[in-house]
Amino acid sequence: MKKYKGLKLTLIILLILLLSMVSFGGIFIQNKNMFQNILPEYLLARDLKGYRRVELKVSDEILETIRYDAEGNVIAEDNTETEVARTEEKKVNAEEAITQENYQESKNVIEKRLKAMGVQDYVVRQSPEKGTILLELPENTSTDRVVGQLASQGKFEIVDNDTNEVLMTNADLKKVQAGYGTTTSGTTAIFINLQFNKEGTEKLRNITNTYIQTTVEKETQTNEVSEQTEAEANQTEENQTEETEQNTETVTKQIAIKIDDATLLTTYFDEEVSNGILQLSVGSSTSSSQAEMQEYLIEANSMAALLDSGKMPLVYEIEQNKFVYSDITKHELGIAISIGIVISIIAMIYFIIRYKTKGILASISLVGYMAILLIALRYFNVEISLGGLVGIVLSAIISYVITVNLLKQKEGMQVIKKAFLALIPAFVITIVLIFTNITIGITLFWGMAIALLYHLSITNSMLKD
User: Are residues 150 and 296 in the same domain?
Assistant: First the structure.
């Protein structure tokens, strides 16, 4: 029995050492002529890494200037002779649309887009006087794409490709999603699914029965003139014979799908769509690599977030787009981490002096806990901010307290049960913080959850007599 326990303890210690090497060192593989760490990088929030400051102002762009004569008639653009009595500027935002309600609605749409695109740790402010929206966004590889989507109005239209008559708008949309799907040929493709509401479903059904390819029969008449003599030249009508031919012509009525007046695609339909879902293919695996497919998926998700969040009632333009460096330098951050390491070493020395062999095992266990927590934060893409660092410190303290109680008491299950009951209010608070986009919540949640599971399974097994 003792031999089995010793083997079990040895395996646990070796596992902790392996996890610690991975967490604090990384996993390196050779990529061409370089060694590359395949472990995900820590996702630092804007207050540690710096952030993008974006200012969106209500556009005052003039679309056209309309000229009127003395009688109030519009003067054509190419008319330079008529005297201009007055002019009227047609702006991209009508004067009657510049209201407090539309300012607030535009801000709400921006916030919906940020959530739909998975942006974390952002700040949105608005000037109530001019409607200007100030954004602070975390800086990463997707920031430029996010900024581009936020500045878009998100106007969706399905129009007649010939007459430009508007057939459907944002008001007909119910939900927009993107994802993988399978084409009729069996290949994998990226799709954007446009799901319409009840009224939109009926409109789509009518459109799919109207905008189709049809074959039309047309009658054409050809006139043949017989050979005429010089004397018969004045009697052409009597010598003329008429023949009628039957010709067929393929006529295709098409729609154009537009976003912010830019045509996404033109198409027609082969069959009726009655379920209210229009599926648009973005890219397929037959002609694209895995990296290209991933890029297509990112673009499709961005477009889905743009349309699903609704159309902004006002057109905005980017007034400012710049990177702001963090007030906390890498040197200062390094000092804070060094202080944390020193405190941890002192705590482990105390364990060893007070509890001897069990103190050594408890210290090894604490190192393993921090290793697993840091790996989890990397793989779950948790943004680490100043609040997140506080959450990690609190998690370490909770882990330390649980370990102390496990050293003092023989019944490990009772210790974990008491710890769980004591942490229930903290779990509730962290969930509220997560939903309010405060980053301390997510790190503290993972820290407590991993602490309970880790000490129940690992530390308890190591410290059992």
Answer: yes
Of 298, 323, 348, the one marking the end of a domain is 323
Domain extent, residue 352, equals 22-44+327-463
Distances (CA, A) of 27 to 21, 38, 52, 115: 9, 6, 31, 32
In the predicted model, is pLDDT for residue 290 greater than 80? no
Residues 161 and 308 in one domain: yes
> What is the C-alpha separation between 234 and 420, in angstroms, rounded?
112
Domain shared by 295 and 186, yes or no: yes
Residues 334 and 445 reside in one and the same domain: yes
Per-residue pLDDT of 90-141, as tens digits, reads 888 988 999 999 999 999 999 999 998 888 778 899 988 889 999 998 888 8
pLDDT at 84: 81
Q: Could you tell me how many helices (H) and strands (E) the chain has, helices first?
A: 11, 19
Cα dihedral 93→98→103→104 (10° resolution): -130
**227 within domain boundaries:** no
> Which class for 275: exposed (0-12), middle (13-18), buried (19 or more C-beta within 10 A)?
exposed
In tens, the pLDDT along 210-238 reads 998 887 666 655 555 445 555 555 555 54
In this structure, the answer to whether residues 268 and 410 fall within a common structural domain is no
List the beta bridge partners of residue 56.
Answer: 133, 318
Distance CA 456, CA 464 (A): 11
Q: What is the DSSP letter of 456?
A: I
Closest by CA position to 381, among listed 142, 112, 73: 142
Q: Which residues sit opposite 284 in a β-bridge?
A: 189
How many Å apart are CA 428 and CA 198, to the nearest integer? 39
What Å distances lie between residue 236 and 220, 224, 227, 230, 245, CA to CA? Answer: 21, 11, 10, 11, 22
**Do 338 and 292 share a structural domain?**
no
Q: Where are the beta strands (DSSP E) in 133-276?
A: 133-138, 156-160, 166-169, 173-182, 188-196, 213-225, 240-252, 255-259, 262-267
Token digits for 66? 């309309």
| Of 385, 428, 389, 331, the residue nearest 44 (C-alpha) | 385
Residues 167 and 282 in one domain: yes
Residue 78 in any domain: the answer is no
Q: Does 79 have pLDDT greater than 90? A: no
Q: How far is CA 230 from CA 26, 101, 438, in A?
A: 103, 85, 101
Find out whether 156 and 173 touch, Cβ atoms under 8 Å. Answer: yes
- Counting the structural domains of the chain, the total is 2
Single residue among 278, 302, 323 that ends a domain in this structure: 323
